[in-house]
Amino acid sequence: MAFKTDNIMKLAGAGTAIVAGLAVINYYAIQLPKEHKESLAKEAVAVIAQNQANCAKSAKALYESTDHTDFSSYSNHYNAKMNKCFMVVTVTDLDSNFVSIDLYDAVERKAYGNYTGTYMCSGEHAADCRLNSGRIWNDGNNSRLPADVMIGFKGTMYGGGSGNDTTQAEFMTLVQPFMND
């Protein structure tokens, strides 16, 4: 009987050691990384929120440093994937049926895109729409021509083309990757 009791006690001790070992492995291999990941995720959210707040300040400062009319507005977005602060400025002149939309990096003050055209493409203004045009520079180098993407009227040097009543919507679709992430 003593032999069997000793073996049972050894097995019980070994079993306890195995369970304790598994508990340690579980803590260090599973629980601790999970807590660490949650902590990192909270830190990342806080950094993005701070970057968005800084972006809003930069965009407001840039907008206020320029001449703008009562018919102008802006919106901004911190793009975490690109680590950039983008803003879209829209200026409308009701008297001349003109609208200008510009995409900027509000911190570096680089132009990434621009659209010029009419805001109304019907009736007496229908012919004006053929000059609607938009350009996007993926690197913010708007002095480089041709742009990476050109829509609507491109000018005779870059293949002509003509704008229409959908050119502005097409431009805004091209702007979305900068203003969303």
Order of helices and strands: HEEEEEEH
Rg on CA atoms, Å: 30 Å
> How would you write the strand order of the largest sheet?
1-2-3-4-5-6
Distance between the amino and carboxyl termini:
72 Å
User: Whole-number average pLDDT?
Assistant: 82
Helix/strand-derived category reads alpha+beta
What would you call the shape? Answer: elongated
What's the β-strand tally? 6
Number of domains: 1
- What share of residues is helical? 40-55%
What is the number of helices? 2
Range of strand content: 15-25%
Give a written overview of the molecule.
About 3% of the residues have low confidence. The protein is of the alpha+beta class and 181 residues long. The protein has one domain. It has a 6-stranded antiparallel β-sheet with strand order 1-2-3-4-5-6.
Secondary-structure map:
Layout: H1 2-64, E1 72-79, E2 84-93, E3 98-105, E4 110-118, E5 133-136, E6 149-152, H2 167-179
Antiparallel strand pairs: 1-2, 2-3, 3-4, 4-5, 5-6
Features:
alpha+beta, six-stranded antiparallel sheet, elongated, 181 residues
Q: What would you say about this model in short?
A:
The chain is 42% helix and 24% strand. The protein is α+β, with helices and mostly antiparallel strands and 181 residues long.
